[in-house]
What we know:
The chain is α+β, with helices and mostly antiparallel strands and 568 residues long. It folds into 4 domains: 27-105, no CATH class; 109-292, Hypothetical protein af1432 (Orthogonal Bundle); 324-406; 414-567, Histidine kinase-like ATPase, C-terminal domain (Heat Shock Protein 90). It is built from 23 helices and 7 strands. The protein has helices at 3-20, 30-37, 46-53, 57-67, 81-88, 90-103, 116-136, 144-152, 156-163, 180-191, 195-205, 210-214, 230-247, 252-263, 267-285, 294-325, 345-374, 380-406, 418-435, 456-472, 506-513, 528-537, 563-567, and strands spanning 414-416, 438-444, 452-454, 478-487, 492-499, 541-546, 552-559. The chain has a 5-stranded mixed sheet. Strands 1-3 form a two-stranded antiparallel sheet. α16 (294-325) runs parallel beside α18 and α17 (345-374) runs antiparallel to α18. It is elongated, with a radius of gyration of 32 Å. It starts with a helix and ends with a helix.
Amino acid sequence: MKRGEVVVVDERVRILKKIQEEHALPALSPLAVQLLELASDDSVTVGRIASLIERDPALVTRLLKLANSAQFSTRSPISSVSRAVTHLGLKRVRLMALSISLRHTFPLRSASAFDFSRFWRLSLYRAMIARESARMSAWIEVDPEEAFVAGLILRIGQLMLFQVLPDAWVQGCPDMGSSLKDQVQWENRQFGINHREVGRIVLKRWRFPEPLVKVLEADPDETLPSGGSPLCTVTQLADKGGEILFGGGEHLYRFHGEVQDRLKLNGEQVNEILAGVFAQVDELAGAFDLQEGRGKDVLEVMEKANLALSRLNLHLEERVQWFLEHPPGSEVSEPDHALCPPDGGTEAALQAVAHEIRNPLTALSGFVQRLAKNSASEDQRKQYMKIILGEAARLERVLQEMNDYAKQYRPDFRENDLGQMLGAILERAHEWFKERNIYLRVHMDPDLPPRLVFDAKGIADVIQKILTNSARLMDGGGDVQISCSYDSAHRAVSLIIHDSGRPLPNEAMSELLDPIVLSKTFGTGLGIPMVRKIVGSHGGTITFTRSERGGNRAEIRLPAYTESYRRN
């Protein structure tokens, strides 16, 4: 055994020895001990529980405050413990009282490297997620109040572990919102023991019911053990839910899948649970002597969500750019073979990337939308949510552009009347433009051949996309001039669309001027990759410029082929 490993083993022995000492850890109050003894006694009376709780006036105050909160929707104020028991149920009150007593077993030490207040707030989030999951799931039978207590004590071993360690030892501890696996691995490396082991030891000493002790026996490397009890499954999922909220939201869609698999709750229900716990935890904070911190917590979660969105955006750009620079068949090895359909071409690879990003994006934006719906005030948090939802919508447009671009395009070349096709497009768009105070002016070259060979649907899509982009740039109305001319010397048709809207941003303009499709080209929201693909398949070109007279100018130049010319 190496020297470092010996030190860790010695530290484990020292910690275990200290935990066994009676004075090393706080003892449960006599009231909490009696509540635990009655936890499995179904014959206990309302009067017995009420008289027991009334021995602690501070507990009565906290319990009545909780009983009168919006959590339990009481029609009239509850002013006594016996009425609380009658209204809320014997088991619920008993477990609520136990939870409050458990919290006050550990004083909030301000001068400590361990943030006790944050620990209890995160524990309340896990407890509420566990309770709401058990309440909403019809697939498994778990008492919601028992799930609440199990969620509350899930990481209580951390309190006990750091109770016997000097503050200097916890400086490198992972954030409390980090994953259970990361937390346990760090503790094992530092101390040779982790908070799950410590929690089990102390809960057994306190004579907690066996089902609650077993919740701490799950292997952190196996997040959702298949052989675990329903209570264990609910609390492990609640722990992951806490990680999603305060550790980063990019894995929310995986969490959706796990909850769907184990509890049969859909993504919308999961978002409802996660978005609803902020108000619920604030309701509970007073009973647990914690300051209300809903605004701060929501802001923290929004920051994490924004970071997750930024990482998705960066990942998307990197993946798309790689595939555009290294098309299938190139000698450079692919970064992820699972995402590269064999012989599928660049388009198929882009479609795979879009699918990879859409799942976490949909889950993340759905959660933020639900959170925004629950937030009534127009404060900084609501504005932050709007910004995030705007960025999520932009990414969704990017994915849609990628999907459009990735679709196999087979132009249907046949003779068509360009003027007639353009007239049909403008007729369909007339009312839409009129509502926006946009006036269309059209000039057709009389020398234009009456019949030309091109893919009518593809070119129509190009014109419609450019007209739509022009309309977006004219918030207060304006003019769109469309001119079609024929260059007989070069046998080419030039279609120019000139609008009076605000100039395109420099970033979008730089992408439009570059003839090469790059990852950022998909981010302009203008549908340019597909437009270029269609025009390019005709052997034509498309250019975008800012007009000296103001507005923007797009020019489509196509070969002017007729059927007889093609045959020759």
